[in-house]
Design brief:
The structure is a homodimer. The first copy, chain A, is of the alpha+beta class and about 200 residues long. Chain A has ten helices and four strands, in the order βααβαααααααββα.
Amino acid sequence: MNKTPIDFYFDFSSPYSYIASEWIEALAARNGRTVRWHAVLLGVTFQAAGLQSPVSHPIKREYSLLDFARSARHAGVPFVLPEKFPIATQNAARIFWWLAETDEERAPGWARHGLRAAFTRGVDLSDPASLRTLAVEYGLDGDAAAGVCADERWKTRLKEVCANAIGRGVFGAPFFIVDGEPFWGNDRRVQISRWLESGPF
Amino acid sequence: MNKTPIDFYFDFSSPYSYIASEWIEALAARNGRTVRWHAVLLGVTFQAAGLQSPVSHPIKREYSLLDFARSARHAGVPFVLPEKFPIATQNAARIFWWLAETDEERAPGWARHGLRAAFTRGVDLSDPASLRTLAVEYGLDGDAAAGVCADERWKTRLKEVCANAIGRGVFGAPFFIVDGEPFWGNDRRVQISRWLESGPF
């Protein structure tokens, strides 16, 4: 039987997405799977589900900030919370979808590059100049990347992607779909591992 | 150094609290700890934090129902979702706090008895007759237990308990505090185990 790819939905401003982005490829590879990366906007999926960011709720906010950092230490990945957080990530996501259609193999690398810049160096991905610098660091043409952010084609593509994600039940990030089974959150790593290693349970 | 007890906050209508209630005592005992059980009302902590039940949000609801059952299978505990869900649990909680003050050692057993009745047999804990039957099954005096539910003393006690929990940062259930460190959710089991076995990380 062919093993299906793992669908991995992330937002460039989601700490738990960043942590998951550091383990999903290795876990997939160990189990003979590939990963299909999907940059989405949590703002859009939250709205569809009537939700808000965990840091927008009093009391829950303090816990979330502590848990982001502790969950990163638990996973063994470096972590800093960017000074500006959360941020709008549509431009980073548009560059992702531009790459996904024009230079497909480089799209996941851009995702990792952006997530690591945000969550290990505190780079503000919502700042056009910082995003351009990041694109050039990644070997992209700076003008082309900046142009993508303002291009109706990639705006429309990102809207379609978010609508498709919502249609598949995605309401947060990271969100995984494995063999049609949905898993939400970095903390579903143990259940996803079990599923991949020994099948449905 | 004396090892501090683990504070375990639960709601009688919380599937994830039920699952956690089935592993917390054994995990604590293996690590030389005891557990202090706290029956709280999620309705009250949700309100303080501006939150709602996961099943009250469209899209998230479908996932949550699937995840309750899958998380129970993952933990190896039987599970059914009661037909009426979620329910008001103040009466089950008042009986808990009555026991906690008058026959302390029997309070955690009442919690487990109620959670198991709800989530393995679908017993409606919000129904006075069902709750009375459950109390009698547990060896309590049915009239006394019914009286507790209407007694201002235990109403007040439960309000104080919820206010204290909110003051300690509790915004959901299950919620654990270990050595002052907060952990939210059945899925923090792995991090709690690590903390207990090898200390802060």
